[in-house]
Amino acid sequence: MPGGTGAAKRFGGLSMVEGLFSGTNYLAAKRLLDATALRQEAIAGNLANVETPGYRRMDVSPSFEAELRQAIGSGDVSAMKTAQPKLAVDATARSSRQDGNTVILESELLKLNQNSVEHAMETQMITGNLMRMRLAITGRG
Amino acid sequence: MLNLIPGIESTSSALNAERIRMDVVSQNISNAQVTKGPDGQPYQRQQVVFQTVLDSQLQGGATVQIPTISTDHRPPILVYRPGHPDADPRGMVAMPNINIHEEMVDLIASSRSFEANLAVVKSARSLAMQTLSIGKR
Prior knowledge:
Chain A is mainly alpha-helical.
């Protein structure tokens, strides 16, 4: 948790309990967790449609990453709270198949595993954050 | 409804679609020698058509469905078999337009696709379990 006058000013409009959960890292991990859950849905959809002619693969829209990166960079808590991951058709994917489908089975499975590891990291970050808070409140972990 | 396991709808639709596809393949293989069906014609190969169903709000992943099972209209294969009851005056029998190799390839592709979707279920489940363990040591 950031301390000092800067934090006091930043969380000035919030109640104390709300302020506890407005750390930049905590909020960013929360948002990223939303994004990984959504990416899991996108990959599930892509693998479901691996043989549908003309299907174009979907992923979390890249604008979310840019938005979140900017919010973290500027420490803007409210922007971080409003950044919402969305699904979009992956415009960069090119088809190497006759039927125009842009899903590549191997790369989807790789992304699936990558996403799973990211999700584990984010849940652990959030858990660690909550643990530290509990330690600060109760004096024992 | 509470969606605890991300992407489970897409995956279940795909598992269902692949199972239908395997059913159709096995139907084709088992009818590969049928020279006279209920309509008096040799059996014609059936094939599935996959179609994407997009969530109107684009909230979740895409699901897949099989809107129709279509008939393959390639001509029957003519085989010289004079003693056959369905042979024409020249001794030619019209056999179904089924290539067993084609069917086997389709079956393997379908089974691989099924496995890929099962891998997604596993991973989605571990994601949900991790989410549920937030705040626990």
